[in-house]
Amino acid sequence: MRIFLAKRVFTLILTLLVATLVVFVVLEILPGDPASVMLGINAETETLNALREELGLNRPVWVRYTHWVADLITGNLGISYTYDVPVSELILSRLTVSFPLALLAMTLSTLIAIPLGILAASNHNKPMDFLVMSFSQIGIAIPNFWFAMLLTLLFSVTLRLLPAGGFAGWDAGIGPVLKSFLLPTIALALPQAAILARVTRSALLEVLQEDFIRTARAKGITNQGALWKHALRNALIPVVTIMGLQFSFLLAGTIIIENVFYLPGIGRLIFQAISQRDLIVVKNLVILLAGAVIVINFMVDLLYAVIDPRLRGGQDV
Amino acid sequence: MFRTLVEILRHGLKNRSFIIGGSISLLFFLVAFLSYFWTPYPVEDINIADKLLLPSAEYLLGTDHFGRDILSMLIKGAGNSVIVAFVAIGIGIGCGVPLGLTAAAKKGWMDELIMRFNDFTFAFPSLISAIMITAILGPGSINSIIAIGIFNIPVFARVARGAALSIWKREFILAARSAGKGRFKISVEHILPNISSMLIVQTTIQFALGILAEAGLSYLGLGTQPPMPSWGKMLNEAQTFMNFAPQLAIYPGLAIALTVMGLNLFGDGLRDVLDPKLRRSR
Amino acid sequence: MSKMKFIVTLIVLTLGIAINASSVMAAKDSLNLGMVLEPPHLDPTAGAAAAIDEVVYANIFEGLTRIDKNGVVKPGLASSWTVSEDQKTYTFNLRKGVSFHDGASFDADDVVFSLNRARAKDSVNAQKALFKPIQSVTAEDPHTVVVTLSQPTGSFLFNMGWGDAVIVDKASAEKNKSNPIGTGPFKFSKWVRGDRIVMVRNDAYWGTPAKLKTATIKIIPDPAAAVSAMMAGDIDAFANFPAPESLAQFKSDPRFKVVIGTTEGETILSTNNQSGPFKKLKVRQAIAHALDRKAIIDGAMFGYGTPIGTHFAPHHPAYIDLIATHPYNLAKAKQLLAEAGYPDGFKATIKLPPPSYARRGGEIVASQLRKIGIDLEIIPVEWAQWLDQVFKKRDYDLTIVSHTEPMDIGIYARKDYYFAYDSPKFQALMKKLDATVDTKARYKILGDAQRLISADCVNGFMFQLAKHGVWNKNIRGLWENSPVQANDLTQVYWIN
Fold first, then answer.
1. How far is B100 from chain A (nearest CA, A)?
2. I need a labelling partner for B220 at 20 to 30 A (CA). Which of A226, B32, C30, C491 fits?
3. Taken in order C271, C272, C274, C277, is the CA torsion positive or negative?
4. Gap between the Cα atoms of A83 and A91, Å rounded
5. What is the pLDDT of residue A317?
6. Nearest to B199 by CA among B247, B267, B260, B139
């Protein structure tokens, strides 16, 4: 176990390092000079050079790379070129939008998906199953931005009940915030719920096929409750794994939804930072998101190994 | 080959998902094929005088803000979706399957390297990478094909590897190995045919996802560029007219949802038909 | 199934809270102004973004002079000035009793500091050219500043009214990007990035105090969201509404007032005069004849916009209507193209920056030029790429852009500008203009300049961008036109 852990930690660190290198190189070849974006069309060469010097863009490539990695380790993310505030502050303030949104969406999708999955599995091959699976098919097929548009069309344009976009701000109180989160949450949650319901159903069905359940049944356990409890616990592992992965993708995947509803979150920040060539924000944000996914993958790997010792040999599922 | 096809059809026609999904997919491909030769009106022609007309005998689904026929744009959009998804999935299969097969055949450090590479690609949320790619290369269909294609490589590598690993354990492979066949030869001659049904099913699903991804990128303005119509771009353009021409926001969305659902259903049906073990459990 | 019930209850509850919260009415001494683009920062002396000026100009920062809603130069922090006989020495008399928002007092040293900072070698001022004529700035006494120019500059007082020339305090200058400290009638309060900027009334203001107690600028870049926000009353006013297609809807709603004003934005099909076929005058003439301006304005701007035949604002007294020199005429265009040696047309590219006038306009232009055989490949670019490829490296054939700087016909005299237009005749005209002070004589030269670039078909001249203001009918005092990029809120108030 110790060797296994050491090996995995080593690959984790290596992967993170390679990730920083990739992000750095990609941003190096990104066309467009941040200084000229900031100063516009009437700027003079002399002025541009002054600004480049101020931003540290005139230093050699490798110096900038090593400095950046060192800064990442110490948690000093630098100052945004365009906003002139610490990048960490900027990211944190955007996280106060994206993170609760992702969390809400996750919660809502779980609250919808798990009961539906159970419902479908327990009514296997019956009309209810068909109904749930049809819902799931539709949910997967609908692009979330179109769903978001339909929601605004109904609730904002026609009924005028909810805002079509924008964020009230946390100091406006919890009511207005929930109001601005409601439609985005639904738009994000439903497609996720469709996938999750499917996974729950098939995981449950698979477990029900397994030997110990069959044995239990053969032994005459007719108590449906006890049976479902066993099955559920075992089926939960793949479901939770999927949910873990979904969450990290949700954080980044809010890009489109944040664009539709105009929410000032991580997704918009990254979109905007790329177009304004605020490279210091882009590279830190991308590496944080990628790092989060890499670390979650690592933890899922460890979790698997804890659950199933056979995997420690290095054989994957 | 023909026989297998007949066999699939014979089983398939008993399967509800296969019939519904298959018909929708077939319709979609026919429309896409048609678009390369004919549309009711040329989609490049802007005719401002006829803008935002409601459906009529002349324009069956009405016109958009440039006075273009929406039906023609939807048809052309289908053709565009097919090309983008087709080439992107081609990239995914072309690079992913050999990688997966090699990983399964070689094991050891090679396997580790390929799988780490896979994890690595997965670590960058696809949309963000697509945005970065288009920021470097500029928006356009070709770049969205590249972006979608890259994300299909690890998917196919993973599926191919997983399926190949289980085939490697089978007895007939052991027999082939003891007969002195090399790993590469076994992979091509024995493994690939045996995992092909799995790959076909994955292809239909990835195809659907590819269409969704293309629509998403085009919606953000990073994918297909004018004058070529794209479903995602049509939705983007419709958004500002939503208050007084909501019909513009309905058709392209319906087209995407229907197509994706059709392909997914077809994939499900095909899996049931091709995989007898699963057929029992459903 | 109790979980399902729980969800339903939750949704109903949230809806309930939401609706209650929205019924709180806004007080009448505050204003929520919508803006499309968020400023990158709030220091007008260190960035080109129009959005910076649209927040801070006249509200937070003031210059020696200011430009009023009619585009006329008015006294700002300088209450009066005298100009020497040779037009080279300006003596500004500064206002007394003025202080910055942080309490620091304003005097001549601040002016000297601000102007010298803007023209210094390490200056990051985006409009450094404005300060180029300045030879020296000296403080005669705490309330008198003398500026000496190296050559007479007719537009100097106007230039000192730009946002890039505002007066800042030495102690706070470096922090202005995130915490702007000026002398204006509004104080910066807070900035929720990506969402809104809040300003409050400066009760220690030297002049007429602002009528609004607070002014909040909400950033709403999405046109659809802008429509809903206006409709829902979350936004009181949009000085320049992003979606012209929605204006009809506001016009028919009695709650709103729609005001179509003018801007300084000449929207042109910029042409690389040194690239391939576009070198030939006949090709450029053919393009001028192939552009159907009405269709472009109708399609891209839903009818809002004034056609132009040259690079000059139609509301300016020196403007000359030259549309008739190249009327829409496809046969003529084809003939000219054939004479130029392209009877079957040719292929070229058009690079389009993000604004909708460019993206939509570009699609229409491409479709119009296709009719005479010019096959344009549409390449959308972000501003960063546009600046890099089109503006800096001149790697383009055609592009569409709105030149929003006031009185900017002088750019045609720069032979290294991105149009790559090199006309000694035009350059001579501009030199003459610089040395001319008499208004009538200036207008005559400007007229000649307009005729020359129109005859040379330097660019495809399309239309003057309109300003689409939409605001609550009870609001008074917002600018109808935008002679400079600004949202001057100093005189805004609510009736009843």
1. 13
2. B32
3. negative
4. 12
5. 35
6. B267
Q: Does A233 map to a domain?
A: yes
Chain C residues whose beta carbon lies within 8 Å of the beta carbon of residue A41: 48, 387, 391
Q: In 3D, which of A204, A201, A208 has the Cα closest to residue A113?
A: A201
B46–C367 CB contact, under 8 Å: yes
Residues A224 and A305 occupy one common structural domain:
yes
A128 and A48 within one domain? no
Q: How many angstroms from the chain centroid is the CA of residue C327?
A: 28
Domain ranges, residue A58 = 2-74
User: What CA–CA distance (Å, rounded) separates B217 from B141?
Assistant: 9
Distance (Å, rounded) from C-alpha C370 to C-alpha C74? 49
| Residue A13: how many other CB atoms lie within 10 Å | 10
Same domain, A108 and A66: no
Residue A88 lies inside a defined structural domain of this protein = no
Q: Cα-flanking dihedrals φ and ψ of residue B170, to 5°?
A: -65, 160
Residue A81 lies in a domain: no
Judgement on whether residues A175 and A52 belong to the same structural domain of the protein: no
DSSP letters along A251-272, please? Answer: HHHHHHHHHHHT--SHHHHHHH
Q: How many angstroms separate the CA of residue A252 from the nearest CA in chain B?
A: 6
Q: Which of C250, C200, C158, C156 is nearest to C60 (CA)?
A: C200
Closest-CA residue of chain C to A168: C195
CB-nearest partner of C245 from B65, B135, B221: B65
Q: How many domains does chain A have?
A: 2
Specify whether the CB–CB gap between A247 and A102 falls below 8 A.
yes
Taking the whole predicted model, whether its pTM rises above 0.90 is answered as no
- Contact between residue B19 and residue B13 where contact means Cβ atoms under 8 Å apart: yes
Tell me, yes or no, whether A151 lies in a domain.
Answer: yes
Distance of residue B66 Cα from the nearest chain C Cα, in angstroms: 6
User: pLDDT band for position B277 (50/70/90)?
Assistant: low
At C423 the three-state DSSP class reads coil
Q: Are residues A115 and A59 in the same domain?
A: no
Tens of pLDDT, residue by residue over C237-288, are 998 898 888 898 899 889 999 999 999 999 999 999 999 999 999 999 999 9
Testing the interface with A: which of C1, C2, C3, C411 to mutate, by most A Cβ within 10 A? C3
Q: How many CB atoms lie within 10 A of CB B14?
A: 12
Q: Residue A255: its chain C contacts at CB < 8 A? A: none
- Which residue carries 């565009």 as its tokens? B80
Complete DSSP assignment for C5-36: HHHHHHHHHHHHHHHHHHTPPPPTTEEEEEES
Among A74, A108, A138, the domain boundary falls at A74
CA–CA dist B218, C366 (Å, integer): 20
The per-residue pLDDT for A253 is 62
* Same-domain check for residues A131 and A23: no
Give the count of alpha carbons within 13 A of B227, CB side only: 22
| Residue length of chain B | 282
Choose one of A43, A74, A105: the last residue of a domain. A74
Q: Are C396 and C349 in contact (CB under 8 A)?
A: yes
How far is C17 from A178, CA to CA, in rounded Å?
8
How many whole angstroms from its chain centre is CA C429? 26
Per-residue pLDDT tens for C409-422?
Answer: 989 998 889 999 99
Q: What is the CATH number of the domain that holds A199?
A: 1.10.3720.10
Distance CA C34, CA C366 (A): 32
Q: Which three-class secondary structure state does DSSP give residue C461?
A: strand
Q: Are residues A137 and A186 in the same domain?
A: yes
Contacts of A248 (CB under 8 A, 6+ apart): A289, A292, A293, A296, B125
Identify the chains in contact with B, defined as 3+ C-beta pairs within 8 A.
Answer: A, C
Is the domain of A128 the same as that of A68?
no
Distance CA A142, CA A135 (A): 11
